[in-house]
Amino acid sequence: MRDTPIEVTIIVLLVLTALSTRRNIVKFSYIHLFYLPFLLGPALGIILTSLQNADVLNLEPVIGNHHTNIMGGLLDIAALFQSSFIITLIIPFMMKPEKAMKASIWAMIIAGMLYLLIVISTIATFGPQETIRLIWPTLENARTASIPGGFLERLDVIFLIVWLISVFTTMFTTYYLTCYTTQELFHFKDHGLFSTFLLPFVFVFAICPHDIFQFFQIAQWTGRIGFFLTLCYPILLWVIAVIRKKRERTCEE
Amino acid sequence: MKNRRIIVVLLQLTVFSLLLTGCWDSLEIDNRSLILGIAIDEAGPDAAKEEDLTNHKKLDSPDLNANMIRLTAQIAVAGRIPLGPGSGGDSENSAKGKNSPVWVVEVLGHTIDDAMNNLQQEIADPRFLIHLRVIVVSKKIAEKGLVNLNDYLRRNPEVRRSTWLLVADKQAADFMNVAPPLERVPTLYLLSMIEKSIAMGKFPQAFLSTFWSNDSKLGQSAYLPYVSIRQGQNVLIKGLAYFKDNKLAGTTTYPMEIGVFMAAKGINPGGFTTLFPVKDIGYVMVRTTNRKSHISIQIKNGKPHANVYVRLQSELGEKYDEQSKIDSEKSLKTIELEQERWIANVIHDLIKKTQKDKSDIFGFGEYVRAHERSFWNKSIQEKRDWENMYADMSVTIKVKVNIRRVGMKIY
Amino acid sequence: MLKRIRKSFNPPKEVPTTVPCTENKPQSGQMSPLLDHNLQRIETIVGENSDLVIRRFLIFGEYHGAIVYFSSMVDEHSIFTDILKPLMSPPLHLIGRTIPDQELLDIIWNEVLHLSKSKRISCIDEMLDTGIQGSTLLMLDGFAESIVLDTRQVQMRGIEQPQTEQTIRGAREGFIEVLESNISLLRSRLQTTDLRITVNPIGQKTKSKVAVCYLESVANPELIKEANRRLSKIDTDGILDAGYIEQFIEDHPYSPFPQVQNTERPDKAAASLLEGRVILLTDGSPFALIVPAVFNQFYQTLDDYTERFIIGSLIRFIRVIALLFSLFFPALYVSIISFNPELIPTDFAVAVAGGRAGVPYPSVIEVLIMEVSMEVLREATLRMPQIIGGALSIVGVLVIGSAAVSAGFVSPITVVVVALTTIGSFATPAYNAAIALRMLRFPLIIMSGIFGLYGVMIGIIFIINHLLFMDSFGVPYLSPVVPINKQGLKDTLIRAPLWWMWKRPSHLHTVDNTRLADNDKLNTEPVLNPTQEER
């Protein structure tokens, strides 16, 4: 959609998210539960249909021809998992908190498998060199896939649905997290106020990048900062807690 | 408090009604010009004078002026292609004259995008490439290089990757006017012809997506269908056009070579028929139904060596000589052996030909990259390296044919 | 000697329960012992009424008494035989017995009257309230209490097949407007002592009786309490139909989706009682309200259960598809035609363009015009009497279909799309849910006209979020899909065989979970053993 000003598109999605975050945490979990099959199902469908154009030879050698920046790539992908931080918010409300560990491991496995399958199918269809040249390889993969019989030609409709739902749920999660933590921070009773308040900030931040390359850069930077916040800071806290416990024990003795 | 609420609601309504003021992207389907197919030819040397300039002032660079292109576009006309069966009177003047379902427009330009913009100047509705199905390029343009075209097509998000790019032996523009009685829209006829030949096993999948993938791969060269017009109306797939460095390097000489190419790659379904002489039996026609191939690479003396093992299942179509009898396993065996030898020869010739033109359409390089990783990393840094190495590659070909069916007649 | 037998045979006297006057009634008045005063007061309160009957007579030939009733509401024959007759001619066992004056009322109450439903009331307003509802008031001179006897009989229609819910295979009985008859229909299906029915009057002027029915051993007590609480909070002057009650007790009255189901069928009501729901029956309305209601009830019909499970599942599946179709098909059509024609195959795209070539305005407007005219047509056919209504539908189809297309007003594919949508919305069995989806079609079309597919998706996400956030009487609206309930899922899209659904859906938090006892023994043993039969 070229002609629609991008601000309008963003505003609509933001308003939808802001309106949805006014509810309590049970409803929050309902949303995720409901949309899950709508994400996984079509995504798997697209992957499976794109396999008809796949060539196993493209995947070999599995290790890759040249050792490029694996560590950097690892960090970037790990940054994608940061949204799972929301689990820290949900655990206090769980009826069976001992299941939290198992649930989060399963979640990681499913999400990881989905990423892996998408990557495999994209590379199998195009080959590694072509994948490098494309800006949105997954989108192109979805476009090329077609249901045999020529019924639906460009499957990027389904891809659009999947993408939109996943964007919405991710945004919803992080937005909710922000509102809730702000509410806790300032000891307010209800986080509905913050959901409206946060809107203009997020909007301005979204308009910032001038073009796609700057956008990639900013995404990488926020990923790295988030990485520090969600990984290193809790580790620090944990270390402090361990030290404290040891000190308590020595004090008691 | 209640007043405040009313004010807030009113404010929201005004803001949202502002959103309604524009349906920015909305463009009705009948207000779009859907370009179904384009043909790109070389324009003559004095084309620069004819050109209606839209994007630039008169360019004085002789290089750019000498390489002008002529773009012929086939645009679907809304309303003339009915869904149901067409009425009788329409089909008579369907191809030419006033009731043609497509509109053919011709423009000149320096580059593709330039020509596209010139085209837009001449037609009323905004042009859209979303339904572009076939692009025909003349041989001369392909020899000059497709870099420019590829770049344009890649950047444009409207272009589908399932579009077909064809190389025409003579004028590409003729293809835009081909209108056989079987199909109302010429481009769609071209498209269905190619797709059906893939379904019948007469051609490998070589649409834009495969073309670009092959182009990017270091160990494979790209290939496209090579077509020509027969009898004014029929389109013949003459062979494969293979590329080196985005330029046309050569074409296969006869359609049989497509068949052996597909045999070497193991592309199914099989569909080619070979006519060859067998000792004591005469000429026979054998049709391949199934192809399997296995390619393995060994490094001998620092050079790659390919082993191609092809297994074909065929059926006997026709024998030419009335006297000879094909009624025993032994005679079938003779035919099989002869065919094996024959096909192996053709594959060998094809490989030699592509080696001369330094175009690895079989993709041996990809096998090397996949299986012999260290060798690849050491010797090959860019595509040219492989192309040079391919030229001296040695190949062993082994074909095995199994004639499973002889039809309804036993001798 | 007879006297001695009679005395030993005397049953212990019933303690009479008198309903005293409450102080907050406006025209509150105790009865006076004088008959004339009471009658005068009654006449002033009630005013001119041609169906008010006041009949003075002598009880047992000696005492003054009167009966008051409204002739349009009572069974007059019963009054004659069961009230007037035994009062005018004393029964055998009272002949010759002297009755002390103070005990007259008690004797009449205990020994004479033949009617069972009776009360003793001393407050004029209470008396008149019950009198308006069809009771006969019996007043005696010298007593400040009256006996009120229930002799209510109103005209009612016979039990016939419910108009709004036709089934292929199922009972042909439907609820009627009279509460007692409805209760009897319900009780005859659930002949267990577990079924509790409590009746309360609601509405100041109509004083309609509303019955709350539930199965004691199955329904969640919290649910019952909540239902009663909400009913008691209704403070309005008239309840004319069950629909009024529905609107007062809903959780989210501003939502387009209904949270209370209504049915005219006693078998459906009985089935929902067995699941643990609560039924509200209103006097004067043939519709029973089922509370709580979740979304998947709105596309389920009784036919799914009375037929075998494969058929039931397939037909239900088709119904769900029709329902979803009726919601977003026109919006999808608009977005594809106006924004993304690359999604349809090329030949089709060109042909569609051809169909639209003559239409002067954008497809959003075209679809909206068609949809609005379809809605108008639908309303028109509803209001027309049957004879004209049939012809009107044909005219409507002809006009909108063929003529509009030939006039170049709309494109033929739009007609097809709109027709399919309308038919799809007819397939939804619950009228209130069908309306909700019909209404929501329009905002979706507008969103798709502005933003294309993106708009459709945003609209759908908005609607889904709305559904996810709603709950009905504490039960999340989209149970059993969210939160996932394995037992309930067996009854959502498909209808699992009856022997698989041996537990009740847990979103109702019922007290007793199991429906089927032993589900292993079904269908495994041969019915007839041939060797045994021969013997």
From TrEMBL, chain B:
GO terms for cellular component: membrane. Its main location: membrane. Keywords: Germination, Lipoprotein, Membrane, Palmitate, Signal. The keyword Lipoprotein applies. It is found in: Membrane. GO terms for biological process: spore germination. Residues 238-407 form the Spore germination GerAC-like C-terminal domain. The keyword Ribonucleoprotein does not apply. It comes from the Bacteria. It is a lipid-anchor. Residues 25-229 form the Spore germination protein N-terminal domain. Pfam families: Spore_GerAC (PF05504), Spore_GerAC_N (PF25198). PANTHER family: SPORE GERMINATION PROTEIN B3. Belongs to the GerABKC lipoprotein family. This is Spore gernimation protein GerC. It comes from Paenibacillus antarcticus. The lineage of its organism: Bacteria, Bacillati, Bacillota, Bacilli, Bacillales.
